[in-house]
Structures are given as structure tokens and as C-alpha cells.
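call fold(seq) -> C-alpha cells
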Amino acid sequence: MLVNTNSLVSITEANQNFSKVAKLVDEIGSVVILKNNVPKYLIIDFNKAEKITEASDELVTEISNKLINQNIEAYKVLAE
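ret:
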């Protein structure tokens, strides 16, 4: 995952100035909160989260279709 260095915020700063974090999310789309200088939390715009979820649903459908096609003979036998 590529992270914009401008979107990194320490947990202390996020705790003391959450409005700054919210503004960064509005501007950039996401913010990574660091705990002990290690990425720990990701805050993203809610609409962006919905799009990620939708993409995951599409991926699950794609994988399901692929598995069905690979095992079509077994499904035909089970259907009898």
C-alpha cells in the first residue's frame, strides 16, 4: 500500500487535534495514524469505504464464478 507522507499523523497529534485529521481526510482522502512510529490505524472518507466494499463484493463474485467454471462437472454430478 502506498502512503502519502503528508497523510501521516502521530497518535498524540490525532488525539490532541482530531479536527486537523478530519481536514486531512477531506483533502487527501485518508490519513494513517502512527503509534510508536508504526502505521496503526487508517481513517478514510466514508464514501471511499463504501467503494472499497463494493469492489470486494465484485471480487468475491468473480472468484465464485471462476470456481464454478473450474468445477462445473462436479456441480453437474451433485445436481443429479
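The mean pLDDT is 86.
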